[in-house]
Amino acid sequence: MKKNHLSAGSILCMLFLLSTAAYAGGQKDESGKLSVAASFDAMAELTKAVGGDKVNVRTITPAGVEPHEFEPKARDMTAISEASVFVYNGLGMEAWADKAIAAASNSKLIAVKASEGAKVISNTDPEEIEEHGQYDPHLWLSLSGAALEVKNIASALALADAANARYYEENAAAYIETLDDLRAEYAGKFAASKRKSFVTGHAAFAYFCRDFGLEQNSVEDVFAEGEPSAKQLAELVDYCREKNIKTIFAEDMVSPAVSKTLADEIGAAVETIATIEGPEDGKTYLERQKENLEKIYKALNQ
Questions:
Q1: Residue among 276, 15, 11 nearest 146 (CA)
Q2: Is the pTM of this model over 0.90?
Q3: CA distance 293 to 56
Q4: How far apart are CA 160 and CA 162, in angstroms?
Q5: Which residues contact 5 (CB under 8 A, 6 or more apart)?
Q6: What is the pLDDT of residues 71-99, one digit of tens each?
Q7: What are phi and psi of 259, to 5 degrees?
């Protein structure tokens, strides 16, 4: 299993570099915008939707890097030391977050765990629980989960920048309405779908499935680690044939090799689906969610 924990040397290095630098954060950056750090792309996208032109958002996890596996360096933590707000998902997604917040020594920082207050889904595999924690972190892939995260982000921005609190609240309300409308639209579509089951590259869509009464099965586990054994792959083949699966989804940041092997075995197509963990072709959160929804809907009705 891959480790997501910072080494002692990395922490000491951070503490030294950040403690010797003058705190440059404060309420606004040089452009007059609220300075915000976000742990990975989905958190940055939701923050930008709420903050609009009043915020400057820096994303901590670099493009092309899996947030599950990310180990930040001191230079990555500069964004937190200079920010007024740090937005992270929580639920074990960013194993480095608590240590990084402490290392930043930023007394003015408002750290918001965007998943706070969610009805969480528990992991069941003992190794996953030991390595990553008790909960499935992929809340942002649920439209209702994203709505909750938007509320939490708006509250944090309003706390940090009271003069623009109403602006953030109005942006959040409008965005949540869009999320709710999209969820209602596809709830009707999925309710009438021929099938309710789909297969993904890794088990990231449990909250999404809960929104719509669907079922996912996956090639890899919740944290995209390890490949299935021959026995597990054979069971997946049987599952796909039983459920008449015509499409195997592969995520944009997970190797599609095993998904392709499974698809070849059952004569299915491979289709890419977004987990919104990293930036993709400049697309927004909503654009990628709409693509996901439509691709899954079509797969269920082939």
A1: 276
A2: no
A3: 29
A4: 6
A5: 71, 95, 96
A6: 888 877 888 999 999 999 999 999 899 98
A7: -60, -40
